[in-house]
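sanity check this:
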Amino acid sequence: MRIVIVGGGVIGLLTAVRCVSAGHEVVLVDQADIPFSGAASFDRHRALLALNLDDPAVTAAAVHAHHRWIGLQHLLSARFYEQVGALSVLPSEHLSVAQTMLTDAGSWARVLNPDELASSYPQIRFPAGASAVFESRAGVLLADRVLAACADWLRWRSRAELRPHTRAVSIDSGSAAVRLAGGEVVRADALLLAIGPWSRALLAPELAGELVLYRQSMIYCQVPPSDAAAWSATPPIRSLGTDGGVWLVPPVAGTPLKLSAASACRAVVEIDGNTTPPYWRDHLIDAVSATIPGFGADWLIGARDCYYLARTSARGLMLAVLADRVVSYAACGGLSFKFAPLIAQSLAERLIGAVPAPTGLQPIDGGIVRPSSGTAGSHRQTRPVMRGV
């Protein structure tokens, strides 16, 4: 089969790897570099945490993804997963439930009482009386290395064709074809739109209307040399238990300490650059200062805003079947990244006409969106395409 993939992010690249591994021909196009370090959702590292108290199936899926990432390191001959575990600060009534859920999913877990938490991570000021659950099947994905490893692997495969700086301007879902900026039409047996925050520009209004664009501000810090060893052994922490929801990804493998907060995420109308406005940078500095002893603005080495889409009715993910073997996946930031091996495998199986193996993610396994009759034809119109997917 000849498969065309629009979008050179983690989902597009991993789906391409899976399709080529299965013996199919793949053409992957992106209007920027492949991969593109200037993409609106690009980042150096992302956390893989399994625990989801609201959904045991999602917790199990994340543990499964953990093992798939390990396997991908062998396939791609690259190291990009630092298995330092993960930490979740939780109310005391949720601790045993969380530990049982993780254990049932196949991840060793233990509860840290307030004294153990404070002594294990003295570089962090947790709320008084806070306890946490540590999970072992988790850690930090070096996102830039993941993308580079996928692209490098594909470049050495005769069945793969990477076409950077190739802007798609429209698609014809009826014939699984993509029209490029120069007028060339690339035809395929199957087509995947694996696109990022710009997805709404290529989707029919009824689908685009289900996606909300979010902007997240983050700060990057250089920790004091005296604390470097402690910080590099610190797991990612989804929430430090503060009111603003401060979270962190530790400085592993030469990366900086990444800090942000739930309070620094907001819905926006459009993408407006990656520069962090002073208000949000200062907001994060203030929030972090209350949780890390000795922290100050002198730690700061950078700030950046990323964007992601979320489908409000389906945990952020949206898989849309536009026509027979024509599929769109709206990438959704860190959520997409940690589950990327599972999502990519499911997408590859759909493209080649196989029955996709269950992922444990309801929006992928059973929440498929199909446009109403006649909607697919609207994709024949020329629409602006995304930048830096």
Remarks:
- The longest strand covers residues 300-311.
- Residues 373-389 have pLDDT under 50 and may be disordered.
